[in-house]
Design a protein that fits this description.
Number of strands: 43
Shape: elongated
Number of domains: 5
CATH architecture of the largest domain: 3-Layer(aba) Sandwich
Helix content: 10-25%
CATH class of the largest domain: Alpha Beta
Number of helices: 10
Length: 730
């Protein structure tokens, strides 16, 4: 007797995480050699039959009770493994051979399995027939019911409708505690949308709305019965894609899924108190993060937050201009440090629309000079019609210009990239900027880069209008941060180009379309750029410094050395107490090469004197004042004659003449005697002989390049005068 046990020979699974192996939970038939056991199985994944699987099993007497179906990759949703009746399932005993008991049992087990599968399929078929019959009976009941019942039903329906209208609210959408719970539910047919309270559990930050659709889209899932649901929210959280936000779990995959879901220029909400650890800062779609959460990457020594309100600024990245400022700081005193600026771009860079020398390079060069940075070279490498996607420039790639002497590069493309689309723009920019920064002379320490966004244009037939420019901002923002470039937003401060044809913009097609900035617009654009990144940041670097300060602000001392002054022109108050010749004013003028001239003038009545001194190059010292008498050091017994006569003095004029004055007496009178010595700086280049007055008439004295004043022949010891001796200082 053979007893047929109850079995559907069918095992369903509903994995919520990617799973590859599914046990059969019923016997299958085969041999270690010979018939391949997969012919006894049928596998469905989310309602779709598949043959892409293998069976792993051990067989004893041709039967396996531990068979496992192994798929090539993990799946979620619904997987059904069932026994499958095939023509190959046959049993035939060999003639003339003994009949082993295991062989007989094997055949009976095959018969049992076949009967079980027939019953399974029959039950399904009969169950469907019963359901159809019941449905038809119910339909007939409605169609052939009493007329008064139909009237009552209609009245009730009208009342229900009025009640709903009175509530003013929406009909409830089915709610599940979590997406996991929804995936395990047999959601009724006819329901097209559901709500969930979380991903794996209520309140985990992934409460969302789903509609029936494509489960393969990011955030989608499959419920029991193979029904597919897709996420339907405007601003998702990373939790909806599986992020943990605990600061330790790698949430990169969830972030990337969110990028794919929201698309270009989309938005993602970061929950307050959450920290999402990711492995990189990629953001190819220019997605904006909102909310108070943090996206961080691990860096040497800690973590770095990648979502920052700093990126919401119109222009940013001044911190990336160190190399340019190094050139500015070190270059103005000599040509070895000349700041070289190269500008790359399309026709908005290359063309001088008005022929008035107002191209971008002209504007930038003039602005640097006006800011007191004259030692600068600006080269225009613009090419009409070029774009980020182009590979060839006049002399090759941008990298061909990275010669180690270029301190600042401005790159302005993006206008002619419009027809290629936003994905192409990102790819091209990423490639070009990567090639620059990976170059030996392209690192952040070797060259500063300003990404200049395309200016606003009105050229709809060529896709170059505000619809394009509103898209590109996020792409520029992401890549500026990725490659450590400053960003200048040309579009937003000069957004409305549509009415500017033949005014601030050109009219290249003659129909009111605008493409190229004219001279005045170039000055506005690049004046704004210079104000943003350089004006006000050049204190201490510029060569045209100016200050006009009174006593209430600054009173400098006469002992202030030349090195204390910056290049430019400075006016200050001077008082005797601080070492000046008298109370008055002093003007200090310093050249970029180090020369300094100080001019002092008094303001008191009766003192219209002007004194000057200059810095001695090669040392941080001043020359003697011109206009201020300096005493002559007497020797060999010579002394001052005394009142009412002046003491021996040497006085220089601004043009270098030295006047001697004073009366001396009492010293050695023999020829060749040194009477006195002049101060350094007030000595002639060559020797001179002068005839001067004396008590007995006139005598001769000589003045020498070493500063000595000597008697030529006998001089008068009663008194001898220095007045009248004039020579040019060395």
């Amino acid at each position: 007797m053979v007893t047929i046990t109850a079995s559907t020979r069918e095992t369903p699974y509903y994995p919520v995480t990617p799973t590859t192996e599914f046990p059969c939970d019923f016997p299958i038939f085969g041999q270690n050699t010979g018939e391949f056991p997969a012919t006894d199985l049928d596998v469905e994944v989310n309602g779709i039959p598949t043959t892409d699987f293998i069976v792993v099993a051990t067989f004893v007497d041709g039967i396996s009770t531990d068979a496992i179906v192994r798929l090539p990759s993990g799946v979620t949703g619904e997987v059904i493994v069932r026994g499958m009746r095939t023509p190959r399932r046959t049993d035939q005993y060999a003639n003339g051979a003994p009949l082993p008991i295991p062989a007989h049992n094997y055949s009976l087990n095959r018969v049992e399995a076949t009967v079980q599968e027939i019953r399974r399929d029959t039950d399904k078929a009969s169950g469907g027939l019963k359901a159809e019959t019941a449905a038809r009976i119910a339909e007939d009941t409605v169609l052939h019911g009493r007329v008064d019942k139909e009237i009552i039903d209609r009245i009730n329906a009208d009342n229900a409708l009025r009640s709903l209208i009175g509530q003013g609210g929406a009909i409830e959408v089915p709610f599940y505690d979590s997406r996991l719970a929804a995936s395990l539910a047999n959601i009724k047919l006819g329901i097209k949308s559901i709500r969930t309270g979380g991903l794996a559990s209520p309140g985990d930050g992934a409460d969302a709305f789903y509609i029936e659709g494509d489960a393969t889209k990011p955030g989608g899932f499959v419920s029991v019965g193979g029904r597919q649901w897709e996420l339907a929210v405007n601003v998702p959280t990373l939790e909806m894609f599986g992020a943990k936000g605990d600061g330790t779990t790698d949430d990169t995959a969830a972030r990337d899924a969110a990028y794919e879901y929201v698309g270009i220029n989309g938005r993602v909400n970061l929950l307050d108190g959450k920290t999402y650890l990711v492995s990189n800062n990629d953001n190819p779609d220019g997605v904006t993060f909102e909310g108070k959460g943090q996206v961080v990457t691990a860096v040497p020594g800690g973590f770095w937050q990648r979502n920052t309100y700093a990126d919401s600024q119109q222009h940013f990245g001044r911190e990336y201009l160190s190399r340019a400022f190094d050139y500015i700081r070190n270059s103005q005193g000599g040509p070895s440090g000349t700041l070289k600026v190269r500008i790359f771009g399309d026709s908005t860079i290359a063309l001088d629309i008005d022929g008035t020398n107002e191209r971008p390079d002209d504007c930038i060069r003039q602005a640097f000079q006006d800011l007191g940075i004259p030692n600068i070279v600006v080269e225009n490498q613009g090419v009409s019609g070029s774009k980020w996607g182009d590979e060839v420039y006049p002399a090759g790639h941008i990298t061909d210009y990275l010669d180690g002497t270029t301190g600042l590069a401005l790159i302005k493309y993006g206008l002619n990239d419009a027809y290629l689309g936003i994905d192409s723009l990102y790819s091209s920019m990423d490639t070009v900027l990567s090639s620059i920064r990976s170059h030996a002379n392209g690192s952040l320490g070797a060259i500063s880069i300003i990404l200049v966004m395309p200016n606003s244009t009105f050229d709809s037939p060529n896709s170059r209008d505000v619809r394009w420019f509103e898209k590109v901002r996020q792409i520029y923002r992401v890549l500026a941060r990725k490659y450590h470039c400053a960003l200048f937003d040309t579009y937003s401060p000069f957004q409305d180009s549509q009415p500017l044809a033949d005014l601030a913009m050109d009219n290249p097609y003659g129909d009111g379309r605008t493409v190229h900035p004219r001279g005045n617009m170039n000055r506005w654009i690049y004046g704004e750029l210079m104000n943003t990144f350089f004006a006000g940041k050049l204190v201490g670097y510029k060569t045209n410094g100016f200050a006009n300060e009174g006593a209430v602000s600054t009173v400098i001392t006469a002992a202030t050395m030349p090195s204390a002054f910056k290049s430019g022109n400075y006016h200050n108050r001077a008082v005797v107490a601080n070492g000046w010749p008298s109370d008055g004013f002093v003007i200090s003028e310093k050249n970029v090469d180090g020369g300094v001239l100080q001019t002092f003038y008094g303001y008191a009545s009766g003192s219209p004197k002007i004194f000057q001194r200059h810095a001695v190059l090669g040392s941080d010292n001043w020359s003697l004042w011109t206009g201020t008498p300096q005493p002559i050091a007497l020797s060999n017994g010579w002394v001052n004659q005394g009142d009412p006569w002046d003491i021996p003095l040497a006085t220089a004029t601004p043009d270098g003449l030295v006047f001697l004055s004073g009366l001396v007496t009492g010293g050695t009178t023999a020829s060749g005697t040194i009477i006195g010595v002049l101060p350094a700086g007030l000595r002639p280049a060559k020797d001179h002989i002068f005839v001067v007055g004396a008590n007995g008439g006139f005598v001769r004295i000589s003045v020498h390049s070493d500063g000595t004043i000597k008697a030529m022949g006998a001089v008068d010891g009663t008194w001898t005068s220095f007045d009248g001796a004039i020579f040019r200082a060395a």
